Amino acid sequence: MAGHSHWANIARAKSVVDKKRGKLFGKLSRAIIVAARTGGADPAMNLRLRYAIDKARKASMPKDNIERAVKKGAGETDGENYEELLYEGYGPGGTAILCDILTENRNRTASEVRKIFEIHGGNLGTTNCVAWMFDLKGVLRVPAENVEEDRLFEVALEAGAEDVRRDGEFFEVHTPPEIFQQVCDAFEEAKVPTDSAETTRVPQNTVDLDGDDARKLLKLLDGLEDQDDIQTVTANFNISDELMAEVGAE
């Protein structure tokens, strides 16, 4: 079975198209601006900013764009005043969905996100209606072809990781958020390459979906990912590898 983590692969593949439209870089810039504004412009002293810049670099965001976003966040140049929000809702089949938002207009964003949920058979919920179903974790994704499994387990567990699991063509390493940077540093020192490394919400339990509910949910997630103000989308679902691959190829 494939689930929320496999959806990240599809979303990442679709981001190639988003990049051409400027959508991906726009979202990455917002994350950098807010990180610099809340914690300062020095990545060495501001881990959130460091993570945001690392993510932008892995997406091949130009250096000038990154520096411009840092300056906006630090107040060196004029920039939008983004507000951080967490929207929660329900998708087809009783799935729980979280959307991390950065917006300069919460009323407009709420209206647009609510409409996306309704179009695809979901409902925007109230505060903490589903957030309690997720735990904050550090998650590192390592291409399986680039590392020996035994070596990965050794480095991860010695650094304090909680779990290492295989997810298709990747290994997924979970860590407590407070030692996430410690594990990242250990991977870097051991020269273990990561496809992505971030703190994110991981569902405590998942809902198995197939048929129409599965297709509707994937269309809902795609619509949410495409909304400019939504930074990340997380949901607690399992869908067959066959159906997930079919949707990913569309």
UniProtKB/TrEMBL annotation:
Entry keywords, A to Z: Cytoplasm, DNA-binding, Transcription, Transcription regulation
InterPro entries, A to Z: Integrase-like_N, TACO1_YebC-like_2nd/3rd_dom, TACO1_YebC_N, Transcrip_reg_TACO1-like, Transcrip_reg_TACO1-like_dom3, YebC-like
Cell compartment(s), UniProt: Cytoplasm
Chief localization: cytoplasm
Pfam families, alphabetized: TACO1_YebC_N, Transcrip_reg
TACO1/YebC-like second and third domain: residues covered: 82-237
TACO1/YebC-like N-terminal domain location: 5-76
Any GO BP annotation: regulation of DNA-templated transcription
Source organism, top-level taxon: Bacteria
Stored Gene3D superfamilies: 1.10.10.200, 3.30.70.980
A molecular-function term among this protein's GO annotations: DNA binding
GO cellular component, one term: cytosol
Claim: Plastid is one of the keywords in the record: no
HAMAP family, per the entry: Transcrip_reg_TACO1
Family: Belongs to the TACO1 family.
Protein name (Swiss-Prot/TrEMBL): Probable transcriptional regulatory protein Pan189_32830
Organism (species): Stratiformator vulcanicus
